[in-house]
Design brief:
Strand order of the largest sheet: 3-6-9-12-14-15
Strand content: 5-15%
Helix content: 40-55%
Number of domains: 2
Structural class: alpha/beta
CATH architecture of the largest domain: 3 Solenoid
Order of helices and strands: HHHHEEEEEEEEEEEEEEEHH
Number of strands: 15
Largest sheet: 6 strands, mixed
Distance between the termini: 101 Å
CATH topology of the largest domain: UDP N-Acetylglucosamine Acyltransferase, domain 1
Length: 254
């Protein structure tokens, strides 16, 4: 238990630059208090002490401003930043190392007594005010922009924004590593931005330029190789001709 608490506190320092001391984190972070309360209520829920679990969860809601149903399943190092207005439904499942900001809802879209809330993979980040609705799945490392409404599955590594949510960044495409290599080669820091930032037209234009430069670089390398091969072949031919002429001249003298 104490190891999980230490991991929780460490995750705050990793994700919130405003955190200054362990004591401050322990006393003033309602997201941590809500998660710790949920671990107690979830265990009571599994022991079928459901009324007690709901009552304690209600007190935690009053105290923190965060509503987590005791039936929700939450992984390790889960961090709720600020937290006011966060709602997590009964059948929601959250993987390790996920982060939610204030006003996020992991809600349902039906009244059936079945799986009706979202499933979040590992290391998912959901921006302030976003609504993730229904029994959908967000893959590992997915990102959801602030105030988005997501009602469809999100693949691993994708970034979703808008109402309804649409994918604006898929998992790194085959050109991403080439762009980084080209940027480093020409001394241009196009990737100084934090991974996962939303693209803007300038960034997209720079990506196209880097793609074009990569193609030009490949073409130059190919032409250089061809020129080298031609030069080598020409040098070999000249050497052969000189040798033949020298041999002919010796024969003529003889």
């Amino acid at each position: 238990m104490f190891q999980r608490i230490r991991d929780d506190v460490r995750s705050v320092f990793e994700r919130d630059p405003a955190a200054r001391s362990t004591l401050e984190v322990l006393l003033t972070y309602p997201g941590l208090h809500a998660v710790w309360a949920h671990r107690v209520t979830h265990r009571l829920w599994r022991w079928r002490l459901k009324l007690i679990a709901r009552v304690l969860a209600q007190f935690a809601r009053w105290f923190t401003g965060i509503e987590i149903h005791p039936g929700a399943t939450i992984g390790n190092r889960f961090f709720i930043d600020h937290g006011m207005g966060v709602v997590i439904g009964e059948t929601a499942e959250i993987g390790d190392d996920c982060t939610l900001y204030h006003g996020v809802t992991l809600g349902g879209t039906s009244w059936e007594k079945a799986k009706r809330h979202p499933t979040l993979g590992r290391n998912v980040v959901v921006g302030a005010g976003a609504k993730i609705l229904g029994p959908i799945t967000l893959g590992d490392n997915a990102r959801v922009g602030s105030n988005s409404v997501v009602v469809k599955d999100v693949p691993a590594g994708a970034t979703v924004v808008g109402i309804p949510g649409r994918i604006v960044i898929a998992k790194d495409d085959v050109n991403s590593e080439k762009r980084r290599a080209m940027a480093e080669k020409i001394g241009f820091d196009a990737y100084g931005q934090h991974h996962g930032q939303l693209p803007d037209p300038v960034t997209q234009a720079l990506d196209r330029i880097l793609d074009h430069l990569h193609v030009v670089d490949e073409q130059l390398a190919l032409q250089e190789k061809r020129l080298h091969d031609v030069t080598a072949a020409s040098a070999g031919t000249d050497a052969h001709n000189k040798s033949a002429m020298s041999l002919k001249a010796r024969k003529d003298k003889g």
